[in-house]
């Protein structure tokens, strides 16, 4: 009986030690995983349906971009709750914001307009109708490298300075990280990133200097384009994703005409979106978005 008691005590000791080792290993493994911030975007996102084109369409269902510690909706663009889109678009924005924040702790992605609930026309836009477009203002820092924020979108020159915001700098590293995250998204396929030609050239030069993969730089060169016939998108990225596979009512490209074109002019630093695309990339090839389309 005494032998059985001793043997039982030994088994209990071995079991306790094993549990302790497993617990320590699990804690170490968890510590190595980047923290996942809690937000409304953590919930499963309904895909919805994009019907028609970005310049003449609507959105059935879809997902809403929620608030999060790493996402800030521009104060000037909060009215009207224009934060709806296909689940793939909303999820892509959330994943990209998380990725940039993981690379640059504390980074916050600014967000402008997506689409209205149900889609359709939006004042001062000629697109954003079918849940496939999003305006993402730039990451901006000060002379000390600290991220700074404005109430509305602010324009930047090709040298990284702003003509209207003294001391503000276009953050090359974070903005390139955002472009890379969007292009590498595992779900959504980005077809266009509308941005001014000088800032496009600046980002491609930074990517080359940072030894970004050539394949990624080539995709970025073909995806980033400056629109023609409207303001140059020097205060934000206008991101457009392609039609999800099997979504038959989704029209990939807007008609080659100006669709419901808004008047020229800025609203809170935002351009009136009606455009066709032109230009060549740094290698002299026509950009991916060379056909006319609305933005």
The profile of the biggest β sheet is: 4 strands, mixed
Helix content: 25-40%
- The poorly predicted ranges are 14-38, 257-294
What class would the helix/strand composition place it in? alpha+beta
Helical region count? 5
**What is the distance, rounded to the nearest whole angstrom, between the alpha carbons of the first and last residues?**
84 Å
Question: Over the alpha carbons, how many angstroms does the gyration radius reach?
Answer: 23 Å
Could you give a short description of this structure?
This protein is α+β, with helices and mostly antiparallel strands and 295 residues long. It has five helices and 14 strands.
Overview of this protein structure:
The protein is α+β, with helices and mostly antiparallel strands. The protein is 28% helix and 16% strand. The protein has five helices and 14 strands. A four-stranded mixed beta sheet has the order 7-13-10-11. Strands 1-2 form a two-stranded antiparallel sheet. A two-stranded antiparallel ribbon has the order 3-5. The longest helix has 30 residues, at 2-31. The chain is globular.
Write the topology of this structure.
Layout: H1 2-31, E1 49-53, E2 56-60, E3 63-64, E4 71-73, E5 84-85, H2 87-103, E6 109-111, E7 133-137, E8 140-141, E9 169-170, H3 172-183, E10 190-194, H4 197-209, H5 214-223, E11 224-225, E12 227-228, E13 236-241, E14 276-277
Helix pairs in contact: 2-3, 3-4, 4-5
């Amino acid at each position: 009986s005494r032998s059985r008691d001793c043997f039982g005590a030994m088994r209990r000791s071995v079991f306790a030690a094993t549990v302790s080792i497993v617990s320590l290993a699990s804690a170490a493994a968890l510590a190595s995983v980047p923290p996942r911030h809690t937000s409304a975007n953590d919930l499963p996102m309904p895909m919805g349906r994009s019907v028609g084109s970005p310049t003449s369409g609507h959105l059935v269902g879809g997902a809403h971009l929620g608030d999060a510690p790493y996402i800030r909706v521009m104060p000037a663009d909060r009215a009207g709750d224009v934060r709806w889109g296909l689940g793939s678009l909303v999820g892509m924005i959330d994943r990209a914001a998380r990725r940039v924040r993981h690379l640059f702790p504390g980074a916050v992605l600014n967000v402008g307009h997506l689409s209205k609930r149900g889609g359709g026309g939006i004042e001062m836009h000629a697109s954003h109708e079918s849940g496939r477009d999003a305006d993402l203002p730039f990451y901006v820092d000060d002379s000390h490298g600290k991220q700074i924020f404005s109430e509305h979108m602010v324009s930047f020159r090709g040298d990284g300075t702003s003509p209207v915001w003294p001391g503000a700098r276009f953050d090359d590293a974070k903005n390139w990280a955002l472009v890379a995250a969007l292009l590498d998204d595992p779900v959504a396929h980005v077809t266009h990133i509308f941005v001014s030609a000088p800032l496009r050239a600046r980002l491609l030069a930074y990517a080359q200097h940072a030894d970004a993969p050539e394949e990624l730089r080539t995709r970025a060169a073909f995806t980033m384009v400056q629109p023609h016939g409207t303001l140059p998108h020097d205060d934000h990225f206008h991101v457009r994703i392609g039609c999800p596979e099997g979504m038959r009512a989704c029209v990939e490209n807007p008609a080659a005409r100006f669709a419901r074109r808004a008047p020229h002019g800025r609203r809170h630093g935002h351009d009136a979106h009606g455009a066709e695309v032109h230009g060549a990339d740094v290698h002299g090839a026509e950009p991916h978005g060379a056909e006319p389309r609305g933005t």
